[in-house]
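Researcher: Structure for this, please.
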Amino acid sequence: MFKKFFDKKASIIEETNPDNISVENVRSFFNISTRLARLICKLAVRQGIFKRKFAVECKNESCGVINVYDTIEEIPEHINCLTCEIEGLNDFSFKTSELNIVEYYQYIEDGDKKSS
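Model: Predicted structure, token format:
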């Protein structure tokens, strides 16, 4: 019983990209509510363990992420997808309000240690 439990936890850790940790990753690992997982992520940011990031996703399904920002305030009102522009698509300039913005976290190695 415990082996299966620990194997599942090890699998979650192995599959998690430390540069792209979602609230869902934390929720799944600790088997807690989304609300509590979000709180843990915010606390990790305050402690210097995580860095909060925002990825702006392109409307064109074949494209992906246009750009990543450290704060929501940094995201411009209009944004161009260079990939779509290079591919010659007519639709490459977007209002940010029409795009999906994904919040995620980045693990900061040795982030909780204070420098002397």
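Researcher: Any notable elements?
Model: Strands lie at 50-57, 65-69, 78-80, 93-95, 100-107. The longest strand covers residues 50-57.
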